[in-house]
Amino acid sequence: MNTAARLGSYALGLAVLFGGALGVGKLVGPSPTSTATTVGTDGHAGDDHATQPEQQHQAASQTSNTPGGLQVSQDGYTLNPITSLTTGVPTDFTFTVIGPDGQPVTDYQVEHDKKLHFIVASRDLTSFQHLHPDLAPDGTWSVGLTLPKAGAYRAFADFVPTGGEKLTLGADLQAAGDYRPEPLPHVSRTAAVDDYTVNLAGDLVPGRAGKLTLTVSKDGEPVTDLEPYLGAYGHLVALRAGDLAYLHVHPEESKQAGPEITFYAEAPSRGDYRLFLDFKHEGKVRTASFTATATLSDGHAPSATHDHSH
Ligand SMILES: [Cu+2]
């Protein structure tokens, strides 16, 4: 009980400090913190000032709109790369996730068949790897990783700490050498990978979940025997061009093994995104990549509006 009480007041202290720092540092714009909810559930804060509940409500609303992957540290969890990388050289890359107690997190909940999904994308969005590292008992994750060319990369760890909320933390990785960034590929509804063609139907819509249907064919024939991969018939990662914000995407449950795979993706804003579809067929996972633009369609307002009327 004592420990719990101490942890509680520690969290409260952090929340207040963090809130104060944001108040100074971010005079304009939403504050990307969810610590306000910690204060709200504590039961002690907010009694003194009548204005606090409203501020907390606003902070909570804004938090839900903050995309993942933009922060190396969030809600007390920090992505901590250990190994440095050399361009083009296969490396046993290790990292930890440091928890609120300052120690590496060792307990994770399985999500989409894995305890942690590790995504590495080049900053120009032309390179993408979706990896599943191994967890050692001491909380160290390790995975074979090669950064194929020189440049700046973003690594994402997508996980749910046991007893905690789903998080996507992001950290920069660098590969030394002659860096020649490529422009974002043109918007396209068709992607080719090996003998496969994948078509994209549906649109990303700012502020709400857009339905995306991807149809896989091989040599012109629809593929109807896709193999399960990560608890579904495909896995989609979407990154925003410009800052590599990591979108929340979830698959629609399907009993059909293709050719269609349906997802719901929440685009946080207008703009261009790069979509990476992993699908498994004949024992091999392949990735089809698309550039898509999120625009407001036919005058509908985003559904993520909040009712502030009284
Ligand atoms: Cu994964």
Automatic annotation (TrEMBL):
Query: Region (Disordered) spans which residues?
Result: 33-77
Q: Where is the composition biased (Polar residues)?
A: 52-77
The molecule here is called Secreted protein
